[in-house]
Amino acid sequence: MASIFSKIVAGEIPCHKVCEDEHHLAFLDIMPLVHGHVLVIPKKEVDYIFDMEPEALAALWQFAQRVSHAVRKSVPCKRVGTAVIGLEVPHAHIHLVPMQTVGDINFTKEKLHPSSEELMSMAALIQSHL
To answer: Which end of the chain is more exposed for a tag (fewer CB within 10 A), N or C?
Structure first.
């Protein structure tokens, strides 16, 4: 069964796309830790990130790096933190989280619930810095 991320890649589920190329997709987390929280995925479904071929894994991180620069220009933050957890969705993904403090990347804290309009605005802002 296809993951929710594969359904997003296939266009079956909408997302607030930030960046895309032939092999990767970056979109806003709809329940972010902080505003500007982006998910970066390979379009090819792989459950565990470290099961990816070395070249594909390197390309995913290079894509994430490009997106992180745009996030940092779009959201006031000291750093863009990264996390690879992979327990909630069986599709490799990297979290890009704008941080002022280490607490901003605490996945046990309550998530935000931005409106669709807020997400659209944030996606456009990040896209403008790519």
So the answer is: N
